[in-house]
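User: Hi! I have a protein structure encoded as tokens and I'd like to know what sequence might fold into it. I'm fairly new to this, so please keep things simple.
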């Protein structure tokens, strides 16, 4: 259900490199949530770092939404760069099993497979 890669880079460098990889693969970064900073700003003791990248390929999103508008709740794709026990990790919930849990439409499986392959490439490049 998850695809997670470990990086030898610092948290910040992995985040910079992920953003660059997303753009190289013709996806856009819609927003970056800095969960670690947000939690600490609210007075919560949180030692780890975590940035969640909301990424989207408009063509693929259009195919999904024109087939099943309810899937807007699963978009955009999210890729996280985070630290855990001193390691930098990059991870996502795989689009194929997530879509299979939400829709039985066979035409969407191909879209999910394409998106999953490209997001895995982005993560592998960024690590």
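Assistant: Happy to help. Inverse folding works backwards from shape to sequence: for each of the 127 positions I chose a residue that suits the local structure. Here it is:
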């Amino acid at each position: 259900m998850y695809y997670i890669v470990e990086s030898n880079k610092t948290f910040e460098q992995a985040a910079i490199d992920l953003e660059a990889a997303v753009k190289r693969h013709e996806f856009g970064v819609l927003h970056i949530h800095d969960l670690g900073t947000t939690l600490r700003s609210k007075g919560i003791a949180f030692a780890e770092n975590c940035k969640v990248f909301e990424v989207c390929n408009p063509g693929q999103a259009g195919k999904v939404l024109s087939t099943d508008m309810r899937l807007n709740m699963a978009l955009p794709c999210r890729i996280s760069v985070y630290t855990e026990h001193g390691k930098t990790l990059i991870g996502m919930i795989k689009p194929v099993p997530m879509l299979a849990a939400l829709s039985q439409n066979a035409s969407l499986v191909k879209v999910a497979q394409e998106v999953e392959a490209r997001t895995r490439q982005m993560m592998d490049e960024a690590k």
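A useful reference point when you look it over: Strands lie at 2-7, 28-34, 50-56, 77-84, 87-93. Feel free to ask if any position seems puzzling.
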